Amino acid sequence: MTHPLLDLPPLTADRFASIERRVAALLRTGHDVVVMQGEALLPLEGCIRGAAGPGTTALNVITGPYGQTFGDWLRDCGATVVDLAVPFHTAVTAEQVGEALAAHPEIDFVSLVHAEAATGNTNPVAEIGEVVRAHGALFYLDAVASVGAEPLLTDAWGVDLCVIGAQKAMGGPAGVSAVSVSPRAWERFAANPNAPRRSYLSLLDWKQRWIDGGRRALPHAPAQLEMLALEAALERIEAEGAEAVMARHARAAAATRAGALALGGGLEPFVHEARDAAPVATTLRVPAAADASRLVARALAADPALPLIAGGGALAKEMIRVNHYGPDATEDAVQASLAALGAALAEDGAAVDLAAAKAAVTAARHAG
Question: pTM score, two decimals?
Fold first, then answer.
């Protein structure tokens, strides 16, 4: 008995390469793009291990948990790491990055997360890229949460290593990811004796066996279902238009923030300034007497499909995240999420105004 998801013809090298070209167009890059067969942590770690070693001095910008992870990887590679940490309720500035670079002229690698979905902030990559480019350091960017939700101009911003995943704003699968690699980054990898080789983490293997060979023979069997899902996600973005997709996410973010403020019940935006808030997810701080995990569990009991999650780790009791990305970047998803949170808060005796929240969401959504 045939099955449409199991009995598929092999994915050809030409089709794999065509998907990479479409990713490159989305990233606005003329650099090499490699689609990797795993969740985005694969190229994120592969890039750091390929570029960093005992002779590296890295500026690691920390605006959330992924920045902390990158610092751990860099130190594990033997790099000297200068951490630039800012409160998670804000964003880093180009001025802060510039000051760190001036204080440590030996820095030759800068790692940054574009949007931290876990904390709900986003960083001004265009301005930071200008500062990093003037300094001459290699620029590594985690754009997993930002791609599709906000502008991402890889080449114009001077990004040497831009890593994306498809599972958030692109509305695609979690099991496949991609990275654009500049010529400078390839040179860094090739000159690094500690760069992974003959390894699943090795981008150099992809270059030597795939790119340098003219993309005619894949180095291993592709993750076919994930590749087809990535292709479908790209097709959907192309059909809607990248600008329209980004506008939809921006409207959802504005509507969520406005609706939460109007709802009351002690909810407050975790990211203080709207300009620092990521369009992919809105994080909310719950009242001191409340428990975010319990509120989310109660809301999800009423509707398990809601895009709600409690904060991770130490933030589990105080933060709620509304994940308005991909197919959930809609007014309906925002309205349903806030209504469920309002009902959960009301059960705890909090004073909420569901009608005001609904009106604020509609007004903000259409104002954008």
Answer: 0.96
